[in-house]
Design brief:
Order of helices and strands: HEEHHEHEEEEHE
Number of strands: 8
Strand order of the largest sheet: 3-8-4-5-6-7
Distance between the termini: 29 Å
Number of helices: 5
Radius of gyration: 19 Å
Helix content: 25-40%
Shape: elongated
Largest sheet: 6 strands, antiparallel
Length: 172
């Protein structure tokens, strides 16, 4: 099975893998033009040469991180590709997802430590929260901290769905 077929890899981007590797101390070495690149892990071991571009080698680099860290693929992927993204969705993402019902899972604070999880949507530019019976506008102090919230789009049943993308496939 390809590691990128795991649920935790859904919507994983090359940028996410690269940022993760750099954050963990991996370094990227460029060879002369047309010959490729290689990653060096924090212990100094070089990976194979990537000649065909990032997308083609992404699964191998995720596997290299899993092997180096001696962790499960799911644990590494959850850190590389968090299923909730910090900050309010962009206006473009909200508009694109409105075609799918426009409901988002939102978290505020750290769950289990005075944090909360909610289903939200937007009317115009104002957020509305589902309280289990109806939609209502939250208190102003809640919406003043939206940059600290995390969000992910979901369907009408609360199932996570892919993040909205533009015509080129980039997340909005």
């Amino acid at each position: 099975m390809n590691i990128l077929d795991l649920e935790e890899a859904a919507d994983l981007r090359v940028e996410d893998v690269r940022a993760y590797l750099e954050r963990k101390g991996w370094t990227l070495k460029n060879y002369p033009p047309g010959t490729g690149q290689t990653w060096t892990d924090p212990a100094g071991k070089e990976s194979f040469i990537m000649k065909d571009g990032w997308e083609w080698w992404m699964d191998s680099m995720v596997e290299a991180a899993v092997d180096f860290e001696n962790r499960t693929p799911q644990a590494v992927l959850r850190e590389m590709n968090p299923r909730l993204r910090k900050g309010a969705p962009s206006p473009q993402a909200k508009k694109a997802h409105s075609k799918n019902g426009g409901v988002w899972i939102a978290t505020q604070g750290k769950l289990g430590q005075w944090g909360s999880i909610a289903f939200v949507s937007w009317e115009e530019s104002r957020m509305v929260i589902w309280d289990g019976e109806e939609w209502h506008y939250p208190d102003v102090e809640l919406t003043e901290t939206l940059s600290e919230w995390s969000f992910w789009p979901c369907d009408e049943h609360g199932n996570k769905v892919p993040w909205p993308r533009d015509a080129e496939g980039r997340p909005l």
